[in-house]
Amino acid sequence: QVQLVESGGGLVQAGGSLRLSCAASGSVSRINAMAWYRQAPGKQRELVAIITTHGMTNYADSVKGRFTISRDNAKNTVYLQMNTVKPEDTAVYYCNAVYGVLSLNYWGPGTQVTVSS
Q: What is the distance between the alpha carbons of residues 51 and 62, in angstroms, rounded to a whole number?
């Protein structure tokens, strides 16, 4: 099993920057990929960015060129650098780990990001 804890959320003005962190613990060697999702009020949870164990990344069109996902394997931590944020980026951001041969999903409790206009 894997435990995930996010940090770094908060209030930021439009055009500003924020960095989210997700620390993983437990059986981290069996994690295949890690990702950031977000869920705004009244909307479905959506994929923001994903990074594989080989370092391949993919992003939602809405954040391409503004957000960067990265990982520090020595610290078992994944980051989401958010630049030029917009009010529509306001959401609860969740860390996700895809685990094991069955690709089980593990989730963190989430961290709130609020972008003021």
A: 17
Asked if residues 2 and 102 have their Cβ atoms less than 8 Å apart, the reply is no
The pLDDT tens digits along the chain (117 residues) read: 999 999 999 999 999 999 999 999 999 999 999 999 999 999 999 999 999 989 999 999 999 999 999 999 899 999 999 999 999 999 999 999 999 998 999 999 999 999 999
Say how far apart CA 12 and CA 82 lie, in whole Å.
11
Token digits for 44?
A: 């479905």
DSSP state of 99: E
Which backbone phi and psi does 5 adopt, to 5 degrees?
-135, 120
Backbone φ, ψ for residue 62 (5° rounding): -70, -15
Each residue of 32-52: b (16+ CB within 10 Å) or e?
Answer: ebbbbbbeeeeeeeeebbbbe
User: DSSP code of 117?
Assistant: -
Residue type, 19: R
